[in-house]
Amino acid sequence: MGRWKKLDKLPLAEGIDEDDYLKRLVRAQMQLLRVQQWLSRTGRRAIVAIEGWDAAGKGGLIQRLTEKLDPRPVQVWRIAAPRPDEQGKHYLYRFWEKLPAPGTVAIFDRTWYGRVLVERVEGYADKGDWQRAYGEINAFEKMLTDDGVRLIKILLNLSAEEQRKRIIRRLETPEKRFKVTLDDFRNIGKRDDYVEAFDDMLERTDTDAAPWHVISTDSKKRGRVDGVELVADLLGKGADLEPPPVDPEVAEAARKVIGWNPDKASPLTSRPEKK
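RE: above sequence
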């Protein structure tokens, strides 16, 4: 803890060349696909927890994280206000229910940090409750990582001026107007309070077991590629990402049933590349 500057003092990332963006993105997405296959083979579990400002690009990052993956072992959880049946229970209850099964990845679009962010700022939680939550969250995350879960926490940071521009563009784009709600303007009006809440969150929950990673998203493309690269690198750390050899029994069945000869190049894989 203690390594973060104030959120509104952190540098904003510059833009990125289109060709560089596409090359880096595809490379990171393919690495992430190999990571997913490794998780599946080994039964490991992973969580990507994403927080950030309204219009900071959470949906765009999640789309780029998942678009090359097998969708079956990936679950995206969009977290909103607790349902009536969840109210009155411990705030972590609904997140325990959404933890990933062996070999799968859970991506959280907003997280259990709502207790120390929106619930704090909007007064939905008493001061004693949200102050106690820092320790509860640290303990929750340490239990997960001690149990072998690979947990990545990302905060998407966005300047006030860029946030204003994006909300205006959404209002002026018919297909995106649904994204703008009264809550957006309520939150913008309390930006200073949210900056303070984010600063406290970074200071008090940035732990060795579950550190925070802040990504500037004033450049959408730079933020997306930085995010995908970060997740691919951290989830794949120490993993054997080389594709496994064909199972001998599978190879024998393929030889007998469909005449596959692994020692002879198949016409399906030896065709010249199209120009």
